[in-house]
Write a structure and sequence with these properties.
Elements lengths: L46 H12 L2 H8 L3 H19 L54 H8 L14 E4 L12 E3 L4 E6 L2 E6 L5 E6 L7 E6 L5 E6 L4 E5 L4 E6 L6 E7 L2 E6 L3 E6 L7 E5 L5 E6 L5 E6 L4 E5 L7 E3 L6 E6 L6 E6 L5 E6 L4 E7 L4 E6 L5 E6 L6 E5 L4 E6 L6 E6 L5 E6 L3 E6 L22
Antiparallel strand pairs: 1-28, 2-3, 3-4, 4-5, 6-7, 7-8, 8-9, 10-11, 11-12, 12-13, 14-15, 15-16, 16-17, 18-19, 19-20, 20-21, 22-23, 23-24, 24-25, 26-27, 27-28
Amino acid sequence: FENHCCRPLFSQTNHGNFKTLCISATYSPVSVKSGDRFIPTRAGSNWSINFHYANENCRSPSQNHKAKDTTSDSSKDAVTYAALLRNELLGSGIETVQDPHTDERRHAVPSQDSHSLFKYAVHTKRVPFHSDNEVSPYSLSPLSNKSHKLLRSPRKPARKISKIPFKVLDAPELQDDFYLNLVDWSAGNLLSVGLGACVYLWSACTSQVTRLCDLSVDGDSVTSVCWNERGSLVAVGTHKGYVQIWDASGGRKLTSLEGHSARVGALAWNGEQLSSGSRDRVILQRDVRTPPSAERRLQGHRQEVCGLKWSPDHQHLASGGNDNKLLVWNSSSLLPMQQYSDHLAAVKAIAWSPHQHGLLVSGGGTADRCLRFWNTLTGQALQSTDTGSQVCNLAWSKHANELVSTHGYSQNQILVWKYPSLTQVAKLTGHSYRVLYLAVSPDGEAIVTGAGDETLRFWNVFSKTRCTKESKSVLNLFTRIR
C-alpha cells in the first residue's frame, strides 16, 4: 500500500415475411343504428397480437439478440411508447408499465374489449369529460386520461453500474494460469491472495496487508486458496500436492494434509469438511477435525480437476475438469450421480444458485465459451448462451437473480447477467489479461477480480435489494430446451 512506482505489494491505485393479418371470411354489413357505411366484420382478429408478431418477423435473429441486450432506459422507453400507442389506437386502457427486465412476459397483450375494432357509429350523447377514456374539453392534449396516467406513473430508476473499479491493487506474481484459484474473500472481510510462494491477507476494513505464509522455504508455491464459511480458517493448496490449513487470526498453520501427487488447483469447504481437486484427477474429501487417514476419494475425471463448488444445502458437490466434464456428486456415494458432457472445453467456472434449489451454472473454456444452466434435480439441461470468449469464473448475486461472469480470450471482460432472461446488465473492461480470478464481498454488493496483468480490481456490480419472487425449486420454472 505504497506508491505505485515502487512496485509494492497491493498498492492502491424481413421486410418480406410479414405475417398476414387474419380477417374473418364473413363479409356482412354491420347493423348500426345511426350509420349507413358497409363495414366488414373483424371481431375475430386480435390486431395488437398480429401487429407484434409482424414486428418480430421483420427482425433477423441477430437483430433480436441485439434488441435483447439494449440498455434498461431505452427498453423502458420503448415499452412505454408501445403502451401509449395501444391506448390511443386500440383503446387498451393501460395505466402502468412494468419493468421489462423484471417481467419476462412483458410482451403479453392486455385483454381486448369484445366490441369490434372499426365499428362506426355517430354519438348522439356526449360522454362526461371525467370518464376514463375522455379528457377535459379544455385540455390541449390529444391523449386520453388513461395515457395521461400512463405517462405520470412512477418509473423505477434504472440501476447504474459503474464501469470504473472503485479500487485497484497491485498484485505482483499473480499467476496467469487458467487452472488455479488464487483469490477468495472471507466472511470476516479479509481477502486472501496467493502470490508466488506466499499467501497475503488484505483487510477491506483497514486496508492492512499481512503475509500469512511463505512456502519458498520448502521449495513450493501456492496454487489455490479458500476460506471456510465462518471466515476463520483458510485452506492453501500447493504445487507439490499438499493442503495446508491456517488459522487466519493467529497466523499459524494448524495442519498439512497429504494425499495428492500433483498440484491442488481447486478447494471447497462444506462445514468442517474440505474437498480438494488436483492435477492427479482425484478429488479428496477430508474432515479437518479427524485424522488424515479418514478420507473419501472421488475418481471420475480423466484430466485435471480445476473447479469445485458445494451446493448451498451442503448436499451436492459440483466438479469441473480439463476433460470438459461437469460432474455432480452426493455426500454418500463414491461415484458421480450426474455427468454433463455438453461443454467443448475445460470447465473451471461453476456456481450454484442461492435462489433456486438445484440450479447450477457452468462455463467452458476457449473452445466452448458458453454458459450452460442445469437442473440437477432432474438432470436436465435448461438453457445456454455463447458469451464470445473463454469463461474463467462465475458467481451469483446473493440478493437478486443475477450472476457475474469473468472472461479471458479474447475480450478479457466482466459481464453481469439477468437470469433467466440472460440479458446483459453491464459489461466491464479494464484488465489487459484474462480475468482468471473472482470473489464476492461478504455483503454481496462488490466483487474483486484478478488477472495476469498483476492487478486486483474492485467493482460495485450488485444491489442489496432482495428479489421479491424466489422459488424453492427449478422444477416449476423451467423446461428442458429441445
